[in-house]
What does this fold into?
Amino acid sequence: MLVGTIGDLTFYKRGNGYFVREKGGNKPKAVMTEEEFLRSYENSLEFQLATRHGHGIRTALRGIVYGLQEVGNSGKQAGKIMRCIRTNPVGERGKRKLHPATLAEYLEGHEFNSRSTLPVNFELYESGGLNVNVSRIMGMVDVIFDSHDPTTDIVAPGLADEYSFVAGVAWWDGTENDVQGSVRCGWRGNWAESTRYDVENTSVTAPVLQPVFPVGFSGLLVVVAGIRYWKDDGTADGFWLRLQSCLRVVKVEG
It folds into this structure.
């Protein structure tokens, strides 16, 4: 497989595939300085900001996001956040910031692993089997999964012996700063995980997970929920079972 340029063709790798395109494109300096490329430059600035916010959310929830995402998912998430940024009535093109009032419209329902989604893995989801209650006074989110029969309501992969529920909350402090490499674009987070249940169990009483955030916080919140799969020896069977786990943005509030 080739990577590089031969004549008028450029060969490159993206994800798991190899591609070829005609040689071309605009020089970065021209895009940044020439009037005819102004709109492209403005769009690139806002997409860069959307990418940073997406990275910030994933970093804030890294304990339950790690290992889930397939190639290209971060770009999909950034695209949704960019559409939110474009709705901000404050600021000129290229200088607009995240618009908390419309983020729910674009980000709710986002799956961190589109190969394995929460509605597919938890049969009761579409019928209201997941409830999310936010208490800003207590600084806590109640994520409640309905009582269920794992043999019929959990669609576990064949290698899984056990599963657990996960939930998390990310909050944005209104800035777009990085703090010592751990807080990206003003995002912080917290997450929780249930006990592990046998996939052959026939009855599981409604699990409740309670990730916390600062008491009295009035800003933007992103709540996620999902399922992890395990072998009965406590391992995730390397990378494979992590790829079958799921995590979904179930509520955005702010």
About this structure: Residues 1-26 form one domain. Helices lie at 28-33, 38-60, 62-65, 73-86, 103-107, 118-121, 150-153, 240-244.
